[in-house]
Amino acid sequence: MGGDNIGELKTITKIPVGAVALMGAVLYAILGLISGIITAIGIAIGVSAIQNALPATTALGSGAGLEASAIIGGVVFGFIGGYIIVAIVALIYNWLAPRIGGVKLELQ
Questions:
Q1: DSSP three-state, residue 32
Q2: Could you identify which of 17, 40, 54, 76 might form a hypothetical disulfide with 58, taking C-beta atoms 3.0 to 4.6 angstroms apart as the criterion?
Q3: pTM for this one?
């Protein structure tokens, strides 16, 4: 009884949509932050290249507003889009699980 590591096989028949969607939204927001930072770096490189190619008398600005928008937009849209997508997936899972069987997990 004490040393076996064999767990009990359980089937997930329903998942809580709100809780799973919130977790997914947070994960998507983190990915949006990373994507936004990468995009902001690309914008900074692009603006720098354009400024170097133009005559010195041309003033374009730093592009900081675009960079900040890329980062903030990545987080906000990542969160909102992630919540919606994961909620839809959870609803579809809850509809399909009784019909075709849910995911089986081994629990100890």
A1: helix
A2: 54
A3: 0.78
